[in-house]
Amino acid sequence: MKILVAIKRVPDANTQVRPFADGNGVNVANTKMVLNPFCEIAVEEAIRLKERGIANEVVVVSIGASVVQEQLRSALALGADRAIHILSDIPLEPLGKAKVLADVVKQENPGLVLLGKQSIDGDHNQIGQMLAALCKYPLATFASQIELKGNEIWVTRELDAGLQTLALCLPAVVTTDLRLNEPRYPTMPNIMKARQKPLAIIPIAELAVDVEPRLQVLGYQAPAERKPGIKVGSVAELVEKLRQEARVI
Fold first, then answer.
1. What ranges in 27-125 are assigned the alpha helix state H?
2. Any residues with CB less than 8 A from the CB of 131 and at least 6 apart, and which?
3. Whose CA, among 11, 47, 134, 236, lies 20 to 30 Å from 35?
4. Over the stretch 19-65, which tens digit does the pLDDT of each residue have?
5. Portion of the chain with pLDDT greater than 70, in percent
6. What's the predicted TM-score (pTM) here?
7. Is residue 171 reached through a cis peptide bond, with omega within 30 degrees of 0 on the bond before it?
8. How far apart are CA 204 and CA 92, in angstroms?
9. Other beta carbons less than 10 A from residue 86's beta carbon
10. CB-based contacts of 221, cutoff 8 Å, min separation 6
11. Cβ atoms 55, 2 nearer than 8 A
């Protein structure tokens, strides 16, 4: 079975990005960029499935400018077999990315599509859902455990009320959550091998996919600064402050 994993390049979670003074975008110049943590978990799960003999090929795909090849090479160093770079110099909306990925799914015909449940920069949590709808594949989100049984994938996901397990027929789309696994670190030999693994570059224009923007961003602004927290000595004091100061009860 072939597994397709969609990944994204994002700012490192330990860095602080700020909007431009004119509110016309977010300044990521000189910011360390990494593989989105949720995507890294999806790559790790795909590699583990291959190591268990369930999958025979892991393909990673990313959309963006030429710099995303850095993250594709990182995924190859973790153990993916080959990479596809959809070259686009303009940022795409979630629906546009889902359409592009659907076209890649159509070409690659994988048995399973894995994605991180969301990216830590946009926090949209939409692409997996849109991709499943466009491909007409069954979908499971926020996977904390995955098990393959014949032509089905059993996905356990966490809900507020507990755990829910879904059985999906393959091919399917699954988005991954933090508890699914702990990604490995690439070894130096694998980093060297990753340089020789195939990486196909496809200009987005060759896909003939409609990625015309449908959303208008009015501006970016930093969130308001939060008041510093305080410690209270008792539950009674907490209730009193919530009633008299916060006025939430």
1. 37-51, 69-78, 94-108
2. 6, 98, 101, 102, 105, 113, 115, 137, 173
3. 134
4. 998 988 889 888 999 999 999 999 999 999 999 999 999 999 999 99
5. 100
6. 0.88
7. yes
8. 11
9. 24
10. 19, 23
11. yes
